[in-house]
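In response to the reviewer comment on reproducibility (Comment 2.3), we provide here a single inverse folding case reported in full, input and output, so that an independent group could reproduce the run without further information from us. The structure tokens appear first.
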């Protein structure tokens, strides 16, 4: 599990894993303030990927973006303590 914490994914890899467009991911990264590394290219860690996937799941269930971001944050906070 420790190796996943060090995983670094490009924007394209996150898009493929979460099944979202680059435009969506770029917008969500800004709106949800998803932390990234890198100067020329955004680099996402496993927690960022999980957040993107949670937002996508909530959006697929019909939530608007703001509600989806809130739901993802609540889920992460609740499960951080486990």
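Designed residues, in position order:
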């Amino acid at each position: 599990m420790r190796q996943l914490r060090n995983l670094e994914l490009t924007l394209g890899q996150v898009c493929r894993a979460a099944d979202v467009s680059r435009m969506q991911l770029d917008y969500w990264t800004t709106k949800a303030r998803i932390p990234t590394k890198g100067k020329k290219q955004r680099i996402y860690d496993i927690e960022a990927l999980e957040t993107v996937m949670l937002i996508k799941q909530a959006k697929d269930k019909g939530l608007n973006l703001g509600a989806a971001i809130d739901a993802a944050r609540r889920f992460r906070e609740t499960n951080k303590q486990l």
